[in-house]
User: Which sequence fits this backbone?
């Protein structure tokens, strides 16, 4: 959940920490997008609304999927989002605030799983 003015992004980077290789999700001014340039627009979610994110990614596949569940139960699925083929490992997870005003965004109930093939 984000307060007004809380521009943030989440990204999975490889061990080499290259920006924008792996899955990338950004919230800015109520709009969720899935690309570093903002061209992959997903769903509008206003400030103050909690939502659930479920992200599944396989390294070196160039694809990842995203499921969003809104506070009212509405669901949005994005099964074939693209990332760069150079993303071959999940070195670290990054949550970053980019806002320029005094504000905040919140993360709750974070769960990480390694899926077995």
Assistant:
């Amino acid at each position: 959940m984000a307060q007004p003015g809380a521009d943030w992004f989440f990204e999975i980077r490889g061990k080499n920490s290259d920006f924008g290789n792996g899955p990338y999700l950004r919230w800015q001014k109520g709009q969720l997008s899935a690309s570093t340039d903002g061209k992959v627009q997903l769903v509008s979610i206003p400030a103050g609304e909690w939502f659930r994110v479920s992200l599944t990614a396989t390294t070196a596949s160039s694809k990842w999927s995203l499921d969003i569940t809104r506070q009212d139960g509405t669901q949005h699925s994005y099964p074939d989002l693209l990332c760069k083929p150079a993303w071959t490992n999940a070195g670290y997870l990054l949550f970053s605030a980019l806002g320029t005003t005094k504000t905040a965004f919140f993360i709750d109930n974070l769960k990480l799983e390694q899926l077995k093939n």
